[in-house]
Amino acid sequence: MIQKNVAFIGAGSMAEAIFAGLIKQKMVAAENIYVTNRSNLDRLNHLKETYGVQTSTNKEEILKMADVVILAMKPVGVKDSLEEIRSFSSENQLFLSVLAGITTEYISELLGHDAPVIRIMPNTSAAVGSSATMIAAGDGVTKHQLTIAEGLFKSVGMVKTVPEHDIDSLTAIAGSGPAYMYYLVEGMQQSLEELNLDQDLGEEVILQMMQGAIDLMKSTDKSPRELYQNVKSPGGTTEAGLNVLEDHDYQDIIIECIKGAAKRSRDITKELSTIPEKTLS
Ligand SMILES: NC(=O)C1=CN([C@@H]2O[C@H](COP(=O)(O)OP(=O)(O)OC[C@H]3O[C@@H](n4cnc5c(N)ncnc54)[C@H](O)[C@@H]3O)[C@@H](O)[C@H]2O)C=CC1
Ligand SMILES: O=C(O)[C@@H]1CCC=N1
Q: pTM to 2 decimals?
């Protein structure tokens, strides 16, 4: 457990997933977690009752307690939010931003001082200790500060420290990826009705099937292609299903999906930042 106060600016699904995970894994005590949002008091009260975290709509009150500040508002709100808190923040605080498409350089510019800024791309599986979190240090971040960020996020899943220019592309997989998995599961669930199967039974089978496929991929050197070839019998059921996927260019669609998400992350940078184009590659 680290003896640091961690403040969340933004109290949405990502902030909740992170602090739920930090508390569950006993990395940070609930009383050391401070949470604020734009103005939704009901939401703050709900989080306080559920997790025992400290909450307030008064940003100054929250900021003055913080050793580590986690920026977890929507990217579009970052400018207003940082303008609101910059006078309460200090260079002695460590800033961790989970905002898609927002560079450390831009955050430093908005803060207007030399506080260390680290860019983080986690996912909502942090709530159950299973995030795949990407971390990139901004200019001037010390090894010790990076270790603090890595330690916090290692407690809620796997961490990879990467160059900042890779974060946009990795956001598509690490950050947005869970949504594509849930979308796939939703599609399978919808098939249950058409097949006249019991919904509860079917949903349990789908999740165990996916868990098993992940366990097998993690435990073998075989490629996904070898693994699905092993499932497929000539003239069998799997082949019939794979033919449908191929007819619809399923893998091309997945590639376009990931490229589209990565492009959006880079576009957010261009839309919201004042940073010159040459630094965006
Ligand atoms: N949801 C996800 O799976 C992931 C989200 N992220 C990033 O996390 C951030 C938050 O995403 P979500 O939690 O999904 O959004 P959300 O819409 O659920 O929550 C946004 C929160 O920010 C607060 N907020 C907005 N403006 C504010 C301001 N000026 N000052 C203080 N708080 C303010 C809102 O009140 C709300 O609590 C985004 O920047 C997103 O890119 C990153 C990885 C995964
Ligand atoms: O959709 C988004 O923009 C955020 C970033 C990654 C996951 N959710």
A: 0.94
